[in-house]
Amino acid sequence: MKTTTQRRSFRRASEEERRSDLISATQECIVQGGIGAVTLRKVAEFADVTPGLVRHYFSDKETLLCAAYKETMSAMTSKAQAELKKCDKGALARLRLFIEVSLQAPIMQRRSYLLWASFTSLINSIPGVAAIHHEVYLDFRKECEQLVREVFVSLDRDINDHQIVSYSIAVNAIIDGLWIEGCLAIDLFEQGTITELGVTSVQALLKLDEL
Description:
Layout: H1 4-12, H2 15-33, H3 40-47, H4 51-57, H5 61-85, H6 91-102, H7 110-120, H8 127-154, H9 161-185, H10 193-205
Helix pairs in contact: 2-3, 2-5, 3-4, 5-6, 5-7, 5-8, 6-8, 6-10, 7-9, 8-9, 9-10
């Protein structure tokens, strides 16, 4: 929990910073106690603010959970996108980098999995969570589509939109599956094993000589 000094700083923070702090408190509440532990009062305790302040920004628990879920997933996607913006080595290098970043810390870590699993358990009970799940899935898949398209164009290989979508779904599935393995049992694998498996699996899927 925050100290009195930190709490005062929180009160002077901007609206955006306050919302961010409450979302962070929600995430920590889930990590420590599970999704069932989340209440507006409990989140207020983790943020060291009053329950009334939480309600000022989030009218109810569902609204807060939706905001926390979207932030959790957006942070992971944004990290991969940020790394791609720094890469100017060509389509193959960009695709490899995207796979590697997605299968390394901080995106691949136990905390991320705990949050993801907790939020997705609400898909059938909270419509807003289901809508966000579709949104973030499609955002990540579109990133895969763009990278796959760039690779085929760079190699001057013919491919239609339907094939692009099919490949991107499969690439997404490879990354997702290995991400779960790495989050839950990274200590069982030698360093770099998960990322290299991701790279070689996508290379085989797209029938590439190298990646």
